[in-house]
Amino acid sequence: MSYTKSVLIAEDSSVIQNLARKILEFQHYEITAVKNGEQVLHLLEKENFDIILLDINMPVLDGMETARRIRGLADEAKSKTPIVAITGNAKNYTDEDFREAGFDDALMKPLNFDRLVEVVAQLTQ
């Protein structure tokens, strides 16, 4: 029985969001995309995802705070969903900052799409 893994992408850049969507859809992932962290939290109230890709700099609710809130969810399965940071401001954060916020991994912009596919595959197996 084949099961399609679901990926939630939170990215305010339409270009990056669309490129990531196309690449992951080509790898047979089911993609849901939103523009900010508040939308992520609303979706998590009613849906489950196998992995969440979070841009760090988003309007309304940024990726760091969104990750902290996901890790604090009462639903244990949802609070343990793998989360990957996507950032163009790697110099502003250390690996420790990402770990403390609850991220499982971090990808730097410009995105290396081979690495994106690799990380998503590793964290959703």
From TrEMBL:
Listed Pfam families: Response_reg
Record carries keyword Transcription: no
PANTHER family: HYBRID SIGNAL TRANSDUCTION HISTIDINE KINASE J (PTHR45339:SF1)
Highest taxon, organism lineage: Bacteria
UniProt protein name: Response regulatory domain-containing protein
Residues with the 4-aspartylphosphate modification: 55
CDD domains xrefs: REC_hyHK_CKI1_RcsC-like
Transmembrane stretches, start-end: none
Residue ranges occupied by any Response regulatory domain in the UniProt entry: 6-124
UniProt source species: Ravibacter arvi
Keywords tagged on the record: Phosphoprotein, Two-component regulatory system
